[in-house]
Give the backbone structure.
Amino acid sequence: MWEELIRRAIAQLDYAYAPYSEFKVGAALLCRDGRIFTGCNIENSAYGPSNCAERTAIFKAVSEGFRDFKAIAIVGGKHGKIEDYCAPCGVCRQVMAEFCHPEEFQIIMAKSPEDYQVCTLGELLPKAFSPKILEVEQG
Ligand code: THU
C-alpha cells in the first residue's frame, strides 16, 4: 500500500545535502488528494540552520497551499545506505502536530518499499502541544 510513497522517499536520498553528518534522509508526504511532496535533509556549515527531510517536504507543501496530509514515508542512512528504520526527530514530530491529525496521520519508517513500520503521529508524539491548546483558528 505504501510502496510508491516509499520509493519517492528513497529517490530523495540522491538530493540530500549532508556533508557534515553524512546521514542522508528522504521523505515523501502524501496529501489526502493524492498529491505527493518530497523532501531531503539540507545541512549547513553553521549546523543550526540545517533542515530535516520531513520538514522540507511539509514546508514545501504548506508553501504551495496544501495542508491536508494523510501520511509521510521516511528513509535514511549513513551515506544514503538504508540499514535501519529512520524515525522522525522531535522537531519534525512537533511540526507534524501543527498540521496533522494525531490518530489519522500515518508515519511510515522504511528500510525498503517492502519492509517498513507504520505508526500514527499520536503514537510517536503523545499528549502533543498543538494548535488546539491555544484555541487558534488555523485559517
Ligand atoms: N534528519 C532528518 O532529516 N530527519 C530526521 O527526522 C532525523 C534527522 C537529518 C538531520 C541531519 O541532517 C541528519 O539527519 C543527521 O542528524
Q: What stands out?
A: The beta strands are 23-31, 36-40, 69-78, 106-110, 116-120. The longest helix spans residues 53-63.
